[in-house]
Amino acid sequence: xxxxxxxxxxxxxxxxxxxxxxxxxxxxxxxxxxxxxxxxxxxxxxxxxxxxxxxxxxxxxxxxxxxxxxxxxxxxxxxxxxxxxxxxxxxxxxxxxxxxxxxxxxxxxxxxxxxxxxxxxxxxxxxxxxxxxxxxxxxxxxxxxxxxxxxxxxxxxxxxxxxxxxxxxxxxxxxxxxxxxxxxxxxxxxxxxxxxxxxxxxxxxxxxxxxxxxxxxxxxxxxxxxxxxxxxxxxxxxxxxxxxxxxxxxxxxxxxxxxxxxxxxxxxxxxxxxxxxxxxxxxxxxxxxxxxxxxxxxxxxxxxxxxxxxxxxxxxxxxxxxxxxxxxxxxxxxxxxxxxxxxxxxxxxxxxxxxxxxxxxxxxxxxxxxxxxxxxxxxxxxxxxxxxxxxxxxxxxxxxxxxxxxxxxxxxxxxxxxxxxxxxxxxxxxxxxxxxxxxxxx
Length: 442
Ligand code: ADP
Ligand code: MG
Ligand code: MG
What we know:
It contains 14 helices and 19 strands. By secondary structure, the chain is of the alpha+beta class. The strands form 4 sheets. Strands 1, 2, 3, 4, 5, 6 and 7 form a 7-stranded mixed sheet that branches. Helix 8 runs antiparallel to helix 9 and helix 11 runs antiparallel to helix 13. The radius of gyration is 22 Å and the shape is globular. Residues 119-121, 123, 189, 191-192, 236, 238-240, 332-333, 335 line the site of adenosine-5'-diphosphate (ADP). One magnesium ion (MG) binds at residues 123, 187, 189.
C-alpha cells in the first residue's frame, strides 16, 4: 500500500517536505513544500525549470515535475520537522529519460525481467575540512600513516557519532566507523540493500554528513582528491545478485564454489559473466564512476604519503587483494574499487547493472584473475587496458562503447555526454597557474 505523505506528516509532526531529485552532475535539487500542500504534490509532483539545473533542457521546455516516491521518505534526524523524499522526474506525463533516478529504475526493471535483483553496499569516504574547504580541520591529524588512527577519530567523535546514531535510528544497520587512509578522512559503513535503496541512502548520506559537519562548524567533502598528495575519496561498491528483492531474497545468484582466498574465486557462472561485463566496459563506465576533472587525480595517481593510493590504474581483477580494480573478497560478491566520491549515486548503480547485464547477455569472460601487487608489479601486466587518464579520455571511451550507451539509454547518454563535454571545455579554456609557471619564459 502506498504511504500517504500527509498522514505521515500528521503522525510525526512534520512541517515541511523536501522533494528532491538528482541532476546529471549529481547535484541534489529540492523544493521545500509545507505539509499542508503535500497531498497535491504527492499526486502531481513539485514543479522545476529543468534548464536551471544540470539537465540537458532548454529554458523553453515545459515544467518538469518531481513526483515523490513515498518509499524513500526519511524524517531528517537532525531536523525532525522536515522530511526528505526522492522524486521521480516527469515531463508532460512521461518519465524524463535522462533523469538519473529514472535511468536506474529502468535498469532495475530490465534486470528483474531476467530474474536478477542486484543488491549493493557503498563505502562513501569523506574528508572533514575547515569551513573554507582549504585545509584539514584537525591540525593535529598529521601522521604519515593515519589509517584507523584511534586518537584522531576520537577528535572528530562528535560528528562521527552523530551521523552513526542517525543511521542506527533510521535502521540502516551501521556497523563500523574509522579514520581512513588520508589525514582528515573518514569512512562509515552500513549494511547493503536493494540497489535503489542503496542509491537513495547514498544520496541521503552525503546530504546528512555535509549537514552534520556544517552544524559542527566544519566542511565535509566527497571530492575525489581534495588534498594533493593524500589518498583520495573512493566510493567502492560491493555487488551481489539475488533471486528476489527485499526480504524475499533467498538465493545469491552470484555465489559459487571457492572462498575467494585461493584457487576458485567464489563466483557462479552468472557472477563471472556479470563481472565480465564490468571488465569489458570498464574504461567507458569510468565516465560515470569517475565523472569529474578531479577524479583522474585519484586513479592513475602517484603513490600517496601513506604509501599507497588504494585506487586502481588498470582494468584487472583478483581475489582478496586491494590493489586491483575489482576485488572478490569472498564468495558471492565482488567489490568495484574504481568509483569515487563524485559519482552520482543513481548513475553509479545504474551503470553497474548496465555493464553487468551486458556481460550476462554476451556471456562475457572476465579474463584471468591476477594475483599480484598491482602497485609494485603492475608493470609486468601488458595485456590489461589502462584506465582513462582524464575526463575527456573517459568520455571518449564511453562514446566508443555503443553497447553501454544503449544499455544506459541513448537519450540519457546523449544528454550526459553533451553536458560533460561542455564541462570539459570549460575546464580546458580556464587559464591555469601551471601554464604561466611553465610557459612564461619559453
Ligand atoms: P571493505 O572496506 O573491506 O571494502 P566495508 O566493510 O567497508 O568493506 O564495506 C563493505 C560493504 O559491502 C558494506 O556496505 C556491506 O554491507 C556490503 N556487502 C557485504 N556483503 C555484500 C553482498 N553480499 N552484496 C552486496 N554488498 C555486500
Ligand atoms: Mg571500507
Ligand atoms: Mg572497500
